[in-house]
Amino acid sequence: MNSFTTELTVDRTPEEVFAAVTDVRGWFSKTITGTATAVGDAFSFVDKGIPSTRIRVTELVPGRRVAWHVEDAYVAFTDQPDEWTDTRMSFDITPGPGGTTVRFTHHGLTPDQACYTECSRGWTSCVNTSLHALLTTGVGEPIPESAAPAK
Predict the structure, then answer these.
(1) pLDDT digit string, tens, across residues 104-113
(2) Is residue 3 over pLDDT 80?
(3) CATH number at residue 8
């Protein structure tokens, strides 16, 4: 399976990268409700294209790995709105001579899916731009609250 993957390397310790990844409001979305700091925690986010989602933390290995399971999601901009449901996401953290690398994979987000192009673009922005900024400047660029559907 060719699940979507992206990675970045930063001049930070594995522990600093782990702390940033688990700070989902700091890099992912300002609309996060819930927490993502302990196994079993669940959180949700909304934006105009994904008005509902529930993600559960399934694995936390400090300085090494973070994993999530999408329990429910509605991807409104495709004709297959449930294609994120039951997928997984992982952040594998590896120290190296050039710094610490974090490899993000959305397991189950594959090129044959309706949302692949748009969703891979979104993940690339969240990880390679926002998470990178959080790690290197201390301030991420999460999806803003203004991206949430109007109430």
Answers:
(1) 999 999 999 9
(2) yes
(3) 3.30.530.20
